[in-house]
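Quick one: structure tokens for this chain, please?
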Amino acid sequence: MVPVQEKVGYKTFAHRQQSYKSVFKSIFSVTMNFSKKVILITGAASGIGKAIALSFAKLSARLSLIDINFENLNKVAEECEILNENKVFKVATNVSDTNNVKEAVTATVQEFDRLDVVINCAGICDMNGITGENLIENLGKVLNINLISHIAATHYAADELIKSKGCVVNISSIFGTTATKNGIPYAVSKAGMVHFTKCAALELAEKGVRVNSISPGPIRTNLLDNDFKNKEDINTVFQNFEENTPLKHLAEAQDIAEMAVFLASDKAKHITGIDVIIDSGITLRKMK
């Protein structure tokens, strides 16, 4: 008796399964390959920004890294160049000045003659509440870096992003949508990021540009480490976070980087105007 697959000319199940795997692998490699893409990342010298830079480097992207810390920026660039044969373009500047942001975007376009993705990640923390002694003094600085610099980067990059049908990924925080004590400048700046994302997404959608944001929960980075007097304090804080998290574990910078890569890829071509919360369920506690 002749097997059915030979009668109808089909491959065996095993052959078809292997063929499907090859197709899926091919689709994945195409949609997640950034070899012809130029990615501009602010706050790229440490923490989440560094993780994002390294993740794009692994996918052959051409990188423009922006940060105020020249020494760390060079170190991250060197790590990226080990992963990627492309030379990394670096701009050491203070993004709290929008003129510096404009110059960084302009220099990036001059270097690569295109721009495909903007990752707005630069940020600082501030622990002042409404009665805080330094609230007003620090408010402008936090808003300038955490919000206004990102609006500026998107504004100055918009024409190039329209040409390339590119996208923007903003790094916000769960405190942009969840109230917190003693962190008004930071929380307000991140709330602004979430709403800016939606407004920019609506405006740029008809021009083929996507804009999304990611709101991480507590992530252990140097940004938070610098706000604590000693390592024991921050270890205690993060242990408490982990114990009170529904999933009993916290996300890391690499988790945020992987989501940023996904949102910047063709796999997310139908996604715009959303805020992706990555917090292991912490904000669910607020909904009880």
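Residues 135-164 form the longest helix (30 residues).
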